[in-house]
Fold these 2 entries.
Entry 1:
Amino acid sequence: MIRLQFISFIGIVLQFGVSFAQQPQKLINSVGMEFVLIPKGSFIRGSPPNELKRHSNENMHHVTLTEDYYLGVYEVTQGQFEQIMGRNPSRFQGDVLRSELKIKSLNIADFPSEKLPVESVSWIEAVEFCRALSNLAEEARAGREYRLPTEAEWEYACRAESHTAYFFGDDPKQLGDYAWYEENSHELPHPVGLKKPNRWGLYDIQGNVTEWCSDGFDDFYPKLAVKDPIGVSGLSLGIGRGGCFRDTYFSCRSAKRWAFSQEDDGHRDLGFRVAMTITK
């Protein structure tokens, strides 16, 4: 009888999976990257008609995400990218970084390149990084698979249950507490994690570098409620979210969307953060 009950219990676990509460809320992988567990749920994607500087492609609609997922606490750094890929595509490193800092009278000790977010990286390179990270022996053994977040996952995590223009509210005067953008960045990316995080513990998700999403760019959101949406695939345009060190305050809004060529690596403000799911 006990054996049958145990088998029945295992069947329930396999059928319904592990609950949010049973999963580690935070996780550090084999190369030291930190992740936080994002709970499945629903939210209103897009922006209301009266939001300052909104775009017409931000029409509001109900989105449900049916699975929990992990998301990087920080944007991928130059040091992490070079560790996994053996190279660093970033513009702001070496002589270029030193020159920029000298011109702006900034201390080079405050800008260690290994802590700066990787930038000037194409969508293809970001996807390759995720694949290479997934293939590391320890990550593969643990069943951890890495990818770019979908646009819906990105905005859901950025908002962290907020309904305002920014995850902290509607007043752009507070943005400097949470983000590196046009008014406080000296037009330079900064080391990750120096500003305040959102309520789910994500740093620099508004500002510093714009972040690639996995979707192809679709200029029109669905009008009806959707579950686990993915943008149109097979297009040459990808999606960037989150604003960057060169952007104005209204470009760092939670709903702001950008379209970039997926093959273009010439944007010095484009980086990414990594999503992760555990398959075992």
Entry 2:
Amino acid sequence: MDFLKKHYEKLLLGVVLIGLLLAIGSLPILISREKDSLTTLVSSLTHPKVNELTNIDLTGPEATLKRMEAPVVVDFSAPHRLFNPMTWQQTKDGKLILSASTGPSKATVTNITPLFTIISLGTITTASDGTVSYDISLERQAAAKAVDRRAKSSRMTLKRKTDFFELTAVNGPADNPTNLVLTLNDTGETANLSKDKPFKRIDGYMASINYDLEKKAWKDRRVGDSLTFNGEDYIIVAITQNEVVLSAKSNQKKWTIKYSPPAPS
């Protein structure tokens, strides 16, 4: 015990020195481990492990593209009429009706009749010199002027021309042909006609129209004719076998009125 009491300081210093020596001896190992750790960390940051890309899920974008293929139609008219509020109008008999229930959309086409160009063969005359001539009648029902719609006859010989056709051929005996061949000037088409079979071609239509809200009716109207109803003037700009097209004089807005012929009884 006396020895420890006398030399404990030396013993303590020796233990400390031994600890320092151990610490100094372990420094290379610790430094090496730290360097390895830092090298691993740097490598993981500069050369990270990248996983392979999987197939990209394009379900969402493809669904969006499909929706974009169909244009969005925004209708601010019926039934909401956000920017087209409806007004009321008073009829001649004092009734109030919505403006949407008036106008060209409420007109009806009651009949559509075709207008023909008709070329027919009349009398055949043989002159004293043996020349044969043919009485050919032309009727243009679709002509703009009423005077031009009347049937007009022309005395024709082979190769003679008028403003509308030329007699280009006579088939069969000249004084009793089976048919005559005409070339029409407006279309260049060939027309065949005989005494019992005239040439007919549809060149237009006329229509009969009713507007029941004002008890008005127009019979056999043609393209260019005017109609007045619902406080507006309208012009017929087109007629086909299935519809009539009206145009307002004030703003040139057009309406198409369909024709539904009555079912055969």
